[in-house]
Amino acid sequence: MARATSTRRKLLTTLAAWSVALVIFFPVLWMILTSFKTEVSAVATPPELLGADWTLENYAEVWQRSDYPRFFWNSVVISIGSTLLGLAIAIPAAWSMAFVPGRKTKDLLMWMLSTKMMPAVGVLIPMYLLFQRLGLFDTKIGLVLALMLMNLPIIVWMLYTYFKEIPAEILEAARMDGAGLWNEILYVLTPMALPGIASTMLLNVILAWNEAFWTITLTTTKAAPLSAFIASFSAPQGLFYAKLSAASTMAIAPILILGWFSQKQLVRGLTFGAVK
């Protein structure tokens, strides 16, 4: 009887999980389906599905009207560059907070995390003026710096959580064997925390790839990534839903594929330390 109840509960839990997943994924699925419809079918009321006019012309027109490879390359450089730069700064910072904590370490971590709760528009004017004065406006270097600063609190927090799980005695043993600080971080700490560093890197690449506010505000043409590519298909005379959906699908496809293949690593990273 107990086994039957357990099976029923497991079935209900599975159904509930699939229902929630379907609700979350439905807008993306609807966007992908719309991208293969004609403009007339895309705005039809009631919505058409089986009787819709299917076409690939939206993708062909989006490709012809825009320089997709350039937008794609900018997204790759900005997301990976900001993540690697963030890791280079966050690994020593998280090491010091995890293994040489001070009285204010917890407060510092909370303050860093609280900056992520601040509305981005609150610092829009200072950031815009700084970028103009420093010549960083519409440059990939400028966006790498901006997104690194935006995501640095999350990188430090995630690495701090991983590093806290590593026994300090191992690092002490390395010091007794003559390892300096740099060798300790590079050859002892980093290999042991490699799964955590990989999860942190994947999550921050996704966050940087999906960032729209700063990438649209601080660029015009040269350094514009795929978020600006999507915005360029929002025409002032009205939305062309099918073409906009095709552009959006082309923009999110690379990061969806990356997320699909790295989902185990991402889940492991996000749940690490949640259960003791």
Description:
Residues 72-262 form the ABC transmembrane type-1 domain. It comes from Paragemmobacter aquarius. The model has no long low-confidence stretch (mean pLDDT 86). α5 (105-115) crosses α7 (140-164) and α8 (168-176) packs antiparallel against α9 (181-192). This protein folds into two domains: 7-57, no CATH class; 68-234, MetI-like (MetI-like fold), CATH 1.10.3720.10. The protein has helices at residues 2-35, 39-42, 57-65, 68-99, 105-115, 124-134, 140-164, 168-176, 181-192, 194-210, 213-217, 226-231, 241-261, 263-271. With 276 residues, the chain is mainly α. Helix content is 74%, strand content 0%. The radius of gyration is 23 Å and the shape is globular.
Which terms summarize this structure?
276 residues; mainly alpha; MetI-like fold; 2 domains; 14 helices; 0% strand; transmembrane; membrane; MetI-like
Give a nutshell description of this structure:
Its main location: membrane. This is Sugar ABC transporter permease. By secondary structure, this protein is mainly alpha-helical.
Approximate strand percentage? under 5%
Structural class: mainly alpha
Main sheet properties = none
Q: Give the number of helices.
A: 14
Span between N and C termini?
31 Å
Number of domains: 2
Shape: globular
CATH architecture descriptor name of the largest domain: Orthogonal Bundle
- pLDDT below 50 for ≥5 consecutive residues: which ranges? none
Q: What is the CATH superfamily of the largest domain?
A: MetI-like
The CATH topology of the largest domain comes to MetI-like fold
CATH C-level name of the largest domain:
Mainly Alpha
- Regarding quaternary structure, how should these chains be classified? single chain
- Annotation, overall tally of beta strands: 0
Tell me the radius of gyration: 23 Å
InterPro entries: BP-dep_ABC_trans_perm, MetI-like, MetI-like_sf
Keywords: Cell membrane, Membrane, Transmembrane, Transmembrane helix, Transport
GO cellular component, one term: plasma membrane
Family: Belongs to the binding-protein-dependent transport system permease family.
